Amino acid sequence: MMSKELYRETCKRALEYLDKAGIVVTDKEKNNMEVAEYGLGEVEKIGLELIVYVNTDRCCAKELILFPGQTCPEHRHPPVDNEPGKEETFRCRWGKVYLYVPGASVQNPKAVPPKGREQFFTVWHEIELNPGEQYTLAPNTLHWFQAGNEGAVVSEFSTKSRDEFDIYTDPDINPAQSRKA
Amino acid sequence: MMSKELYRETCKRALEYLDKAGIVVTDKEKNNMEVAEYGLGEVEKIGLELIVYVNTDRCCAKELILFPGQTCPEHRHPPVDNEPGKEETFRCRWGKVYLYVPGASVQNPKAVPPKGREQFFTVWHEIELNPGEQYTLAPNTLHWFQAGNEGAVVSEFSTKSRDEFDIYTDPDINPAQSRKA
Predict the structure, then answer these.
(1) pLDDT tens digits, A11-21
(2) Cross-chain residue pair B61–A91, CB shorter than 8 Å
(3) B158 to chain A: which residues are within 8 Å by CB?
């Protein structure tokens, strides 16, 4: 797990992006910020900072923060307990994010997969999301995303989040490896 | 139904509040803004402006705009089709909103119900929401809300919206009376 010091630095930096986006969060939310580093130990490249606003049995809303070029690695949300898997809408609030899903591959992708892990990025249909733009992902759809040069703040609206069931393409990833406080 | 002219003026004014809140929406969303006036013909007092980001079978996200003192009248979201009714989280993004739900009544409420319709506001447990503050409402719970002196912008995260099933306390209200473009 990442050190407490790195966790704190990462949170502090993420809060600067929320400020840039004009998004207000409470002190409690700041103190509960989650940093996903997937057990890979290179959070600046492969990682995600998030504030979970609500996550009930029926729906969930989060704010995702991505540093410049930071990547959320390829994964899908499978069916669990007779439910069809998590459905997600990503809405860019600030900055720019490149989202990749199954479909016709882009010729010259704007995002660059993290070095040494290219083989674990297999879907290449590119969707560029600028502020105010959004995309709704059907359950169990492979996807990954990377922020542009300035970073990004993205609102996620979804059904219940159960991160422990997520399936990542990269076998080295431990989806439970995120740190909260 | 409200005139096209009033609809347009109301939308234009609502967009100014989104600007103040730093929330970016697309031109398409601007053009699809919904103004709920409930068939009462006094939208500045009893009404709501909204942009629906997503509304699938499973979840929904909206931005609600309230002018200073504007009121969303008391209603609840009943069970429909074996589902327990809409669950809603209101998150204040800008301004201030007073939300009223069942529970211990406040002695000196900050909101004032619209004149002549006081009897249709029956729940008086007061929740004040400032930017970054939120409240999650269980399905089928009576609620109403009113913006403070500066107005408010509120994100709503919820299960599927089916406004046509909403039950209002005020018998004069027609929940289907909202205008889109």
Answers:
(1) 999 999 999 99
(2) yes
(3) 59
AA letter at A77: H
Task: Dump pLDDT digits (tens) for B63-90.
Answer: 999 999 999 999 999 999 889 999 999 9
> Residue A69 region, left (φ>0) first, then alpha (ψ -120 to 50), else beta?
left
B66: CATH: 2.60.120.10
Handedness of CA A147, A152, A153, A154 (dihedral sign): negative
Q: What is the b/e burial string over B23-33, where b = at least 16 CB atoms within 10 angstroms of the residue's CB?
A: bbbeeebeeeb
pLDDT digit string (tens) for B123-161? 999 999 999 999 999 999 999 999 999 999 999 999 999
B chain contacts of residue A29, beta-carbon cutoff 8 Å: 132
Interface check for A158 against chain B (CB to CB < 8 A): the answer is yes
Q: What is the DSSP string of B90-141?
A: EEEEEEEEEEEESSSPPSS-SS-PPTT-GGG----EEEEE-TT-EEEEPTT-
Residue of B nearest to A27 (CA): B132
pLDDT greater than 70 at residue A177: no
Range of the domain at A126: 4-179
**ipTM, 2 dp:** 0.95
Global pTM reads 0.96
Query: Does B157 sit within 8 Å of A132, measured CB to CB?
Result: no
Closest CA to A55 of A179, A172, A164: A164
Q: Of B19-23, B156-160, B162-166, which gets the smallest average pLDDT? A: B162-166
Nearest to B89 among A23, A53, A136 (CB): A53
Quickly count: other Cβ atoms within 10 Å of residue A54's Cβ.
19
| Cβ contact, residue pair B59, A58, below 8 Å | yes
Rg, Å, chain A Cα set:
15
Number of structural domains, chain A? 1
For A9-35, what is the HEC assignment?
Answer: HHHHHHHHHHHHCCCCCCHHHHHCCEE
Q: Which residues of A touch B56 (CB under 8 A)?
A: 87, 136
Contact map slice: B 21-80 vs A, CB within 8 A? 21-26, 29, 53-54, 56, 58-61
